[in-house]
Structure formats: structure tokens, C-alpha cells
Amino acid sequence: MDYLLQLWPDGAVVYDEASGDIHALSPIAGELLQQVLTVQQSCAESLAQALLGEQPTAQDVRRVDKLLQDFESLGFIEPCGA
Amino acid sequence: MSTQGLLSSLSRPQLDRLLCGDGLGIVIPPLVVRVRSPISVVADGIERLYADHPLAPQEGAGFCDFHVAVQARRPWFRPLCVFALDGRQPFTPLAQGEAFALFEWGLNWCVTSHCHQWISLHAAVLERGGRAVVLPAPPGAGKSTLCAALMLRGWRLLSDELTLLEPGSGWVVPSPRPISLKNASIDVIRERDPGCVLGPVARDTQKGTVAHLKVRPESLARAGERALPAWVVFPRYERGTALQVQARAKATTVVELARNSFNQHVHGRAGFEALVRVVDACDSFDLRYSQLDQALAWFDALEPP
């Protein structure tokens, strides 16, 4: 997978080199994708902790999980074991 | 590039002879174009709107980027015209009254389809104080009206229709050609500058009534000077609305620029990086306007980021 990611305080943009698609992301989604692209395997909880720098709440984990589902639907990631 | 004076140095019979013969070579920065056409509307438009453009070497001498023709078809009944590049005819024929507009549209197509040394964006671009404003917009958004009014106000026109971006450097290469005005904007611009030079009026085109506005000589004289963008502004004319300006997120600006690009995908990763670099260096806005003077005053007050 080859993605180019550019982060700004007001959002992020990612380029999918395989398809040529460009997607705009919210700031939090940009930060999360950066984490996902630099960590081999991870789960929503550990990613939420890495983003927040502290123990995440259940709501934080659900939010990250929803973003991961969005990334999966965009083809950025595949679920473990797929 | 050796040139032979300006197109205005030709008499009309000389112009007609070249257009009907081997072709008229015109330096249309950053390109050289050789055009042939027996249609008087094409000659009228070129004579009026390209008078200040340099001539390229004639009689088949010298290199030309594009050899184009606007040819007559069916002269006996509802005459038509066709655009040809190297003998190929990429478009369906149009009414002969649209022949000059077809020449302009055909040149746009030549650039967007063949000139992949640049990233071409469907956007006007003008410069003031060394910094450029890029105006991407879909048809009907009021881009060309705004562009014409800015040029008449003293902004340097780099292009009304195609922003040519150098992928490596992020500089915009000027391509000053006549500005395509449609419908009510023709009179709006004529009223603002009664001395402005307009080309042939084409009626009942797919875009309505179309007429082209001649580029100011100052813009043409500086066609060799590139400019760095400082602002990306997405204009939209909305009748009766007060001026509304909203800052845009950089991420969505990149996506919109890509959507308005003809060939960003051809450049792949480098194309994406070029758009990011432009947006990173620019302030971006959505602009809604109905009063041209209000919009012009806002542009005059722009400060580089």
C-alpha cells in the first residue's frame, strides 16, 4: 500500500497511489491514519491511546473504531486476518 | 524564438492570404500555433483579439506546437465549421457563426490534451504585486466575468481558462488569451470599459451568447513572467446575495483543485505533491458575490499569507 498523507491543523488529505484517488479527512482522521500507516498491526483501543496520550474512554474507542471502518471501506486498511 | 513583428503589422488581405494558405503562425505564449481557416469570422476574431501577439515565422518556417484549422463545411445550407488538429477532427461541427469561439475552445483542448509538462487546472489566474490568485470554478460560476473585471482593474491576466502549473516548482506559467464572456457578462464588461475590444459575437451556442475580450497589452507584454500563487478563491455569482467570504480548509481545497484539474492524474504522486505545495502556500476562500464592485474591493484588500 502506498499512501501520501499531508496533515494540517484544519484537516488532512491522503493520496492513494494505486487508484490515484485523493480524499480529504478530518484532523482526527488524519492523525489516526498516520498512526495506522506507521504501525504494523493495532486495535482501536491501542490506537486511541496513542492518539490521546492517555487511557481512552469507551466512547473514544468507539469513535476510533468507526473511523477504522471508514478507512476499511475506502480500502486504506484491511482487517487483521483478512 | 525569432519573430516577425506583431500580428497588427499585417494588412487584412495579408492575414486572409495566410489563413487561407499555408497558415498564420502566432506566438500565443507559451506556445506557437499555426492556424488555417477560410472563414471570415475566424479572421475577424484573430485580427481584433490577437493584434498585439507576435507573429511566428511564416511560410512554413520555424517550429509550431500546434497546427490547427477551422474548416468550412456544408456552405450551401446552414453552414458549419469543424476544428482540426493535424487533420484530426475531435469535435462535432458547429454553426459557422461560432467559428472563432470554436478556435478558442479547440486551443484549450490542444493544451489540456497534449501539454502534460504542466498540470492544467480549469481556473482563471491573475497576478498583482508578484503573487497570483487562482480562481477555479465550474461553468456559470461567474469566473470569467470576475477575471475580466480584475484585468480591467489592473490585475495582470495569466489566463482566463487554464492555470498552467509547473509540477516541480509550483509556479504558474502565463498563457494570456482572450477572455470568454457569456450572455449578460458581455454587456457588464462593455459598460465597465466602453473602450474594451470584443471579438465576434456567437449566438445560440451551447453556452448561450459568447464573445471574447482582448487581453490588455500589459498582460501580454509580461507573458514571460511566471507567478507564484498566494490565494485560491472559489468564486460563485449568486444574484442578489451580499458578499460572503469563507475561509476553506486546505484539505478540501486540494480535493477541489484535483477535481478542477485536467491532468493531475497523469503526474501521479508528483501531481498530488504539487497541488499540496500550492495549497500549503496559499490562503483559500469560498467567495459568493452579486455586486462586482464589492468583489473587486475584496480582491484589492487581499494580503499574501
Task: Based on the model shown, name its key terms.
heterodimer, A: about 80 residues, alpha+beta, three-stranded antiparallel sheet, 3 helices, about 45% helix, globular, B: about 300 residues, Phosphoenolpyruvate Carboxykinase, domain 3, 2 domains, eight-stranded mixed sheet, five-stranded mixed sheet, 9 helices, 16 strands, about 30% helix
Could you explain how this protein is built, in words?
The complex is a heterodimer of chains A (82) and B (305). With 82 residues, chain A is an alpha+beta fold. Chain A is built from three helices and three strands. Chain A has a three-stranded antiparallel beta sheet with strand order 1-2-3, covered by helices on one side. In chain A, helix 1 (27-38) packs across helix 2 (44-52) and helix 2 (44-52) packs across helix 3. Chain A starts with a strand and ends in a 9-residue tail after the last helix. Chain B is built from nine helices and 16 strands. Chain B has helices at residues 12-20, 40-49, 99-114, 143-152, 184-192, 217-221, 250-259, 268-280, 292-300; strands at 24-28, 31-36, 66-73, 80-85, 94-95, 119-128, 131-136, 156-159, 162-165, 172-173, 179-182, 202-205, 208-213, 228-237, 244-247, 283-289. In chain B, strands 6, 7, 8, 9, 10, 14, 15 and 16 form an eight-stranded mixed beta sheet that branches. The longest helix of chain B is centred in the middle third of the chain and has 16 residues, at 99-114. Chain B is globular. Classes of the chains: A alpha+beta (82), B alpha+beta (305).
